[in-house]
Amino acid sequence: MTPKNTALLAGLALLIAAGASACDRGDGAGQKTKGQIESGVGAITGDQHLKNQGKKDEVVGGVKKTFSDLKNAAHDATK
Fold first, then answer.
1. How far is 8 from 72, CA to CA, in rounded Å?
2. For residues 39 and 49, is the Cβ–Cβ distance under 8 A?
3. Which runs of consecutive H residues, i.e. helices, occur in the chain?
4. How far out from the chain centre does Cα 52 lie?
5. Considering Cα of 54, then 60, then 61, then 66, what sign does the dihedral take?
6. Residue 50 banded pLDDT, cuts 50, 70, 90
7. Is pLDDT above 70 for 15?
């Protein structure tokens, strides 16, 4: 791994930590963001397992977000 990749990974690790706490609303947005970052890091480093885990988190987070949005819309419609 080159020094440039090492620095990039360190920066991405900070983004993951910040994104996980800043986006932790319970609606899947944080998990989706974390997945996008993991997938990107996996692609950069050639870590196929991390890339696949990131893709899975993106999908699961997207589904959770969609469900949360539908639940909120139904709640708003009954007001």
1. 37
2. no
3. 3-22, 29-45, 48-77
4. 12
5. positive
6. very high
7. no
Spatial distance between the Cα atoms of 38 and 5, rounded to a whole number of angstroms: 14
Structure tokens belonging to residue 61: 């987070």
Closest C-alpha to 41, from 5, 3, 78, 67 = 5
Closest by CA position to 18, among listed 10, 49, 68, 46? 10
**7: Cβ contacts below 8 Å, ≥ 6 apart:** none
Q: How confident is the model at residue 7 (pLDDT cuts 50, 70, 90)?
A: low
Using the CB atoms, write b or e for 36-51: b if 16+ within 10 Å. bbbbbbbebbeeeebb
